[in-house]
Amino acid sequence: MTIKHVIAASSAMALLAFPAVAEPTAEVLHWWTSGGEAKSVAVLQEQFKERGGVWTDMPVAGGGGDAAMTALRARVLSGNPPTAVQLKGPAIQEWYEEGVLADISDVAEEQHWGDVLPAQIAEHMKCDGHWCAAPVNVHRVNWIWGNKKILDDNGIAMPTTWEEFNAAAEKLKAAGITPLAHGGQAWQDATVFETVVLGMGGPEFYQKALVDLDMDALGSDTMIKVFDEMRVLRGFVDENYPGRDWNLATAMVMNGEAAFQIMGDWAKGEFLAAGKKPGVDFTCAATPGHGFLYNVDSFAMFDVGDDADKVAGQKLLAELIVAPSFQETFNLNKGSIPVRTDVSLDKFDDCAKLSSKDMNADAKDGSLLPSYAHGMALRGEPAGAITDVVTAHFNSDMTSEEAVKQLQDAVANAM
Amino acid sequence: MSNLLERWVPKVVLAPTFVAVLIFVYGFIGWTAWISLTKSKIMPRYEIDGFDQYTKLFATPRWDTAMNNLYLFGGLFIVISMVLGLMLAIFLDQKIRTEGVIRTIYLYPMALSMIVTGTAWKWILNPQHGIEAMVQGWGFAGFRFDWLVNPDMAIYTIVLAGVWQSSGFVMALFLAGLRSVDGEIIKAAQVDGIPNWRIYTAIIIPSMAPIFLSAFIVLSHLAIKSFDLVVALTGGGPGYATDLPATYMYAMAFSRGNLGQAASSAMIMMAVVFAIVVPYLYSELRAKHD
């Protein structure tokens, strides 16, 4: 047998071994690189491989996704976008307007996404009526976490109105306990701000002010009251808050240095990781007021051209992301709740069950609303302009009237 | 043949760098200027839209804060670094025995990156863990040193860390300058019985004018491009009280997906640099011409 024969034979073998069926490939750009998040995304990777796919991981850590977005820009500009990218909220629409997203409506319809996703959330996944992204999870932002022992010792129940909260906080302060654990970073200031807007103004006011950017709502007396409350809250925070990371604030509640924290349900992950039990060591409740502010992570599907392998990979990926088995495992790892309304919650903790119950109830009466502080309600520019005012007010002695005026100017300027 | 080589080799050798500088410095300055006139958001767009981005920029309170911080930080950083550096240099110039060791100690902060400087000072200045906690631990319960978390004072912590980092370098510059002054003149002055301080103020320092200019240029460009120090020390906070133009530009370009606005702020930063560098170049070039 000559060398030529060997080559001929082996290439024939190769052809036999790989029949001409598309081999799903997906390159996935994300920034889930820390502990629980990395574990969560590994689940998806495994399921993808089990179905015969080839997964190319492209994790870009840093800056809360800023670094990943820079990488994405470079890839899109060079005409070679990744298959799927961790994107959320209006950013999906922004990329769609650049004309680089794919249409995955066939998968979505085959899997009946329209029937199992809450309508408000499904709307974020659509570009001009067709599906272009797959939702992964729902984080609730308007949570207030409490240290059970401190609250019991001082005879305090979880507050249901901001007046109750203020009264409880005064009591705690008198007892020498920091009432509110907070980290002075702009996004954390904004997180507290949006829960106060929702609590004091109600869902309709929230929609008008922070989603529709209605000038009258932004300049209203209600908004002045919201800033008044922010000033009151500033008095409940310890001196040393500027620049503190959110998980350090959570640790303060855990260790009994502070009583409450207002933060999304990723804080629950910190409690659970430290071996604390919901209802025993810590309590969770919606922030005072009625409504549900959601922060939905999703993967936007980019246009990969006619490459059959990549298109197949994209479809498989979309199918797996929304499928019940991934929704369950992923969200158990991440501390959020499944975006599907038909996934069993047996394995989830009480906070997650409460979150899911509220989501389904609030979806019906229009109080299921996108979080502005986490980039779900507004595009980068107006959202950033509002955050600038909120954080400037919180960190200075600006009056509420001045803050409201600046808020109107900033939003007008960002239009 | 050799004549031809002589004529062409330098040009050929320089050509790649020349082209690279042309594209990657001046080309991109042009590109940024173009983008600053468009409505670019997450991706660059090329339809010219006028000076909207600049109007928006100047209507933004955060940009005002950033520019005021730049003037405050830049002014204090340059002046204090130069005064301290000059004083250190003069003291070291007194022919002391351990000069080599001390010079190295003062120069060492320069070997650290600004990120390290910022992080170290963040811990030192943190009221809960740093100086304030230490002095209170000694029994002075009323002692307050909360600049880092006080929005009105936070910018001065950046000056403090910046000066700590750079004054040793300025000292080295001045020391070299002091040593280059002609010893004969100084001796002549000493023979005439002129006091030491007069020798410095009337002879040595005036003859070091070029060193002052170099130190000023180096420090001012450090001040304008300051970014890592702020990010590590205060993260721009509390609120945006310690934002500088560079951190503002970064926030617009990379966090907010607003390339047009970022480009316009970059152009203003460049204008500030030009305002300093152009008179310097002008004086330098004219001096040669004469």
UniProtKB/TrEMBL annotation, chain A:
SUPFAM superfamilies, per the entry: Periplasmic binding protein-like II (SSF53850)
GO cellular component: periplasmic space
Signal sequence range: 1-22
Highest taxon in the source lineage: Bacteria
Pfam families on file: SBP_bac_1 (PF01547)
InterPro entries in alphabetical order: Bact_solute-bd_prot1, SBP
Keyword annotations from UniProtKB, A to Z: Signal, Transport
UniProt keyword Kinase present: no
Location(s), subcellular: Periplasm
Keyword Transport: yes
Purpose: Part of a binding-protein-dependent transport system for a sugar.
Similarity comment: Belongs to the bacterial solute-binding protein 1 family.
Protein name: Probable sugar-binding periplasmic protein
UniProtKB/TrEMBL annotation, chain B:
Chain segments annotated as coiled-coil in the UniProt record: none
GO cellular component term of the entry, any: plasma membrane
One of the GO BP terms on file: transmembrane transport
Principal location listed in the UniProt entry: membrane
Record-annotated ABC transmembrane type-1 domain positions: 67-280
Keyword Cell membrane on entry: yes
Swiss-Prot/TrEMBL keywords: Cell membrane, Membrane, Transmembrane, Transmembrane helix, Transport
Mode of membrane association: Multi-pass membrane protein
Subcellular location: Cell membrane
Membrane spanning residue stretches: 12-34, 70-92, 104-124, 153-178, 199-224, 262-282
InterPro entries the UniProt entry points to: ABC_transporter_permease, MetI-like, MetI-like_sf
Family, as annotated: Belongs to the binding-protein-dependent transport system permease family.
Full protein name: ABC transporter permease subunit
Species this protein is from: Pseudooceanicola albus
High-level lineage: Bacteria, Pseudomonadati, Pseudomonadota, Alphaproteobacteria, Rhodobacterales
